[in-house]
UniProtKB/TrEMBL annotation:
Its main location: cytoplasm. GO terms for cellular component: cytoplasm; membrane. Residues 23-296 form the CNH domain. It comes from Buteo japonicus. Pfam families: CNH, Vps39_1, zf-Vps39_C. The keyword Transport applies. CHCR repeats lie at residues 563-727. This is Transforming growth factor beta receptor associated protein 1. It comes from the Eukaryota. GO terms for biological process: autophagy; endosomal vesicle fusion; intracellular protein transport. Keywords: Cytoplasm, Protein transport, Transport. It is found in: Cytoplasm. InterPro entries: Clathrin_H-chain/VPS_repeat, CNH_dom, Vam6/VPS39/TRAP1, VPS39/TGF_beta_rcpt-assoc_1, VPS39/TGFA1_Znf.
Length: 863
């Protein structure tokens, strides 16, 4: 695909060079700075000064001013010209002789220094001598198969090396010690210092003109077979793909990143970056094409022209305007070597951004995203394409010159709703990715607000995730947008995030009450309860407590029961205040008291008594309606009994008074048990309820955490109730037998045998008797074991005492107290483990030294 990379501009018109002399032809050219030298077929050298002019419209023209001309007097064409600016010399090849002339006056050097026998020559642009005041020249000698290296100074020449080639050379280019040669049938690389050569590829010099051109350090461009422009390094390899020329290429030049080629009718321009042909310029009768320090000059026999490169930025912009993104990016990367680093970075980022918008407009979203990221796009450039997404308070102004040609998304999609939806989905995805990266720094409010608007408009599930996590959504813009799209629950979350819990609750309550419609959450009531449960604003909790309790007492009470203890203490919430509030809501009141008594385990009599009374009242109320125990009544009875059994804090007599006259016999028994009136309790269980199992259980739970004697006393009481002389109920007799047989260990067998009727057979009581005997034997053995252990322990103590006595201690009137240094007057003393002896009154003194005190703590007194 074509791109306008060069413009052909005339430099030297025919009339300036030859006037009306048609026989004069241009043979060669050389350009050094503004100096243009032309060699003709009539042995003349012309010197022009080229002046580049740029018009207001940016058009470039060249004005050539003739300085002088010089006739060499050989009547032979001037074959080649090469400028050595460091020496102010011009090397002129004419009639197989290279002559040194002054660049300014074109006069030969006074010494007459010259090189004879040269067919063609090339300068070494990567010299190896290191001498700044000489030029290294390589010539193809008239001698057969001979190459010669010379050092050319200001007024003399010096041969350095002569190298022989396997075939006759036709063309040469030099880089350091390396020569790239076109021989008769092939191209080769030859190191003239070592003599090592490397074959490249074959060609036929009889069929086409060879081209050998140095294009960079240790790299050459060659005219290969099949119309290919081949790149080769001094190692004999190609690091670039070839370019496709025509078969009859005459010359080639380099102007990075382009390779320019000349044939009979055209000038073609190929990119070195992607090897594609970029431009074709018609140009007939051309026979010279050369580049000089970035300036490409082409000539016919009669005139000289300059290929002026268009600025790379303009070429890139032209490619982008044609939506040729890949080519533009390749060219931009290649331009790095020609542009200062900082300027290139700025330019390249902008190009990436422009390319990203082109891909975006073509709905190539993945490619667009990568380009936006690489180009570090200010994401607001993208957001600004979407109407009303940027906050009204945003100070963003689009880049100038603009990065794209679109006013907004409507223009870009031409009203296509499907395309618009895809673009919005892309922006949602892109903003979600970049909002937590460095790309968002400095304008997180713009990004999050835009993302919220997109989510709300698309009814996207991520809207709620955005609002419940850290975000920077602007309240004013976001609230208006959410209200517009009837996202009232989300609006409440926004208010909550911004510390406006009252506004949030007001909205949510309206949704639940049906004043406004929002189906985001079907469980919004439960959500409000949870919200109030963890709300730190005590006033809000009290404000909405009636509302949540009116909706559901069981659920609403959770604003108090699920609140953490730390939160309640922090906000100084008094349970009494809560109970007062709940007086209108009996179910909630019971739930809360259960929470206080059973879960928080607050040990206050009034709460325990209150809960028991509520249970009792609820049971009696239900029993007054129906005599059948429904599930709720059964559950309440279980709760009441559990509370009466486990709690010791309620007012027993108060509850007992309320139970009197009812059929709550089990509860009465429990209360009598709490009053230690066990005979009354057991009488109720046995004679009124006839629940023998409950009577046994009564003995068990009432004796928990009590000693064995207390437990035994309860079981004996129960047995006495069963065997009351005033009763002859067979059921009671059997209950007594079962009690004895099941709980033999809980009875004193001797006492039992005294109270059981004489008419009972041994067989009837055999399990009890067996258990009693077994228990007696077990008790005896355990007692014997304990006695044996005690005796063994006593023996150990005695042994230790004997060991402590040790060897005898001798006391005489010659021994003195270690404390007072006085002799002992009586056989009473204190001996320390270290063997020291002191008076008893000295040992008692508190001012003993610390060492003595330490030993006295473990001492043994012996008298």
């Amino acid at each position: 695909m074509s791109v306008k990379a060069f413009k052909l501009v005339s430099a030297v018109e025919r009339e300036m060079l030859m006037g009306d002399k048609n026989y004069i032809n241009i043979e060669c050219i050389e350009c050094c700075g503004k100096n243009l030298y032309i060699g003709t077929n009539d042995c003349f050298i012309y010197h022009f000064l080229l002046d580049e002019k740029v018009s207001a419209a940016g058009k470039i023209t060249f004005a050539a001013t003739k300085q002088l001309h010089k006739y060499l007097g050989l009547k032979k064409p001037v074959s080649e010209l090469k400028a050595a600016s460091a020496l102010t010399r011009l090397l002129v090849l004419c009639d197989n002789t290279i002559t040194l002339v002054n660049m300014m006056n074109l006069e030969p050097v006074p010494t007459g220094a010259r090189i004879k026998g040269a067919v063609t020559f090339a300068l070494n642009e990567n010299p190896v001598s290191g001498d700044p005041f000489c030029v290294e020249v390589c010539i193809i000698s008239v001698k057969r198969r001979t190459i010669q290296m010379f050092m050319v100074f200001e007024d003399r020449v010096q041969i350095v090396k002569e190298v022989f080639t396997p075939e006759q050379p036709c063309a040469v280019a030099v880089d350091g010690y390396y020569l790239c040669l076109a021989l008769t049938t092939q191209y080769i690389i030859l190191n003239y210092n070592t003599g090592v050569s490397q074959d490249l590829f074959p060609y036929c010099s009889d069929e086409k003109r060879p081209i050998v051109k140095r294009i960079g350090r240790q790299e050459f461009l060659l005219a290969g077979p099949g119309g290919l422009g081949m790149f080769a390094t001094v190692d004999g390899i190609s690091q670039r793909a070839p370019v496709h020329w025509s078969e009859n290429v005459i010359g080639a030049a380099l102007c990075f990143p382009y390779v320019v080629a000349l044939d009979d009718e055209f000038i073609t321009v190929h990119s070195m970056l992607d090897q594609q042909q970029k431009q074709t310029l018609p140009f007939k009768e051309g026979h010279i094409l050369q580049d000089f320090e970035g300036k490409v000059i082409v000539a016919t026999n009669k005139g000289v022209y300059i290929l002026v490169p268009l600025p790379l930025e303009k070429q890139i912009q032209d490619l982008l305007a044609s939506h040729r993104v890949e080519e533009a990016l390749v060219l931009a990367k290649g331009a790095r070597r020609n542009i200062p680093k900082e300027k290139f970075q700025v330019m390249y980022k902008r190009i990436l951004q422009q390319a990203g918008f082109i891909q975006f407009a073509q709905l190539q979203f993945f490619e667009a995203k990568e380009l936006f990221r690489s180009g570090q796009l200010d994401v607001r450039e993208l957001i600004s394409l979407y109407p009303f997404l940027l906050p009204t308070s945003s100070s963003f102004i689009r880049s100038h010159p603009p990065l794209h040609e679109y006013a907004d998304l409507n223009q870009l999609t031409q009203g296509d709703q499907e395309k618009m939806t895809k673009c919005k989905r892309f922006l949602m995805s892109y903003l979600n990715e970049v909002r937590s990266t460095e790309v968002a720094n400095g304008y997180k409010e713009d990004i999050d607000t835009a993302l919220l608007k997109l989510y709300a408009e698309a009814n996207h599930e991520s809207l709620l995730d955005l609002l419940v996590s850290e975000n920077f959504c602007l309240l004013t813009d976001s609230a208006a947008w959410l209200e517009k799209h009837k996202k009232y629950f989300a609006l409440g979350l926004l208010y909550h995030y911004n510390g406006q819990d009252a506004a949030a609750l007001q909205l949510w309550v309206k949704i639940v009450d049906g004043d406004i419609q929002d189906s985001t959450r079907s469980d919004l009531y439960e959500y409000i309860v949870d919200f109030l449960t963890f709300c730190s604003d005590q006033d809000l909790v009290w404000k909405y407590s009636d509302w949540v309790l009116q909706k559901s007492e069981e659920v609403g009470v959770q604003i108090f029961t699920k609140r953490s203890l730390e939160e309640q203490e922090k906000n100084n919430i008094n349970p009494d205040d809560i109970i007062s509030c709940l007086n209108k809501y009996p179910k909630a009141r019971v739930k809360y008291l259960e929470h206080v008594v059973l879960e928080r385990k607050i040990e206050k009599e009034k709460y325990h008594t209150h809960l028991a009374v509520l249970y009792l009242e609820a049971i009696l109320q239900r029993k007054s309606v129906t005599t059948d125990n429904c599930t709720e009544t059964t559950e309440l009875l279980f709760k009441l009994r559990s509370l009466l059994q486990k709690s010791d804090l309620y007012r027993i007599h108060f509850i007992l008074d309320k139970i009197q006259g009812t059929d709550l016999h089990m509860e009465s028994a429990i209360l009598y048990g709490k009053l230690e009136e066990h005979e009354k309790a057991l009488h109720i269980l046995v004679h009124e309820l006839k629940d023998f199992h409950a009577a046994e259980e009564y003995c068990v739970w009432n004796s928990e955490n009590r000693d064995t004697q207390y437990r035994r006393r309860l079981f004996h009481m129960l047995l006495s109730v069963y065997l009351n002389p005033g009763t002859s109920d067979c059921a009671l007799v059997m209950a007594a037998v079962d009690l004895l047989n099941k709980h033999a260990a809980e009875f004193d067998a001797a006492l039992v045998l005294q109270v059981v009727p004489d008419s009972w057979s041994v067989q009837l009581l055999s399990p009890f008797l067996a258990g009693a005997v077994r228990q007696s034997i077990h008790t005896k053995r355990m007692t014997q074991t304990a006695l044996g252990l005690a005796r063994a322990e006593n023996l150990i103590y005695k042994h230790e005492k004997v060991k402590q006595k040790g060897t005898p201690i001798l006391l005489s009137d010659k021994k003195v107290c270690q404390v007072c240094q006085n002799p002992f007057c009586e056989p009473v003393f204190v001996r320390y483990p270290n063997g020291g002896m002191v008076h008893t009154h000295c040992a008692a003194k508190k001012h003993l030294n610390s060492n003595m005190t330490h030993h006295s703590s473990s001492s043994s007194n012996q008298t």
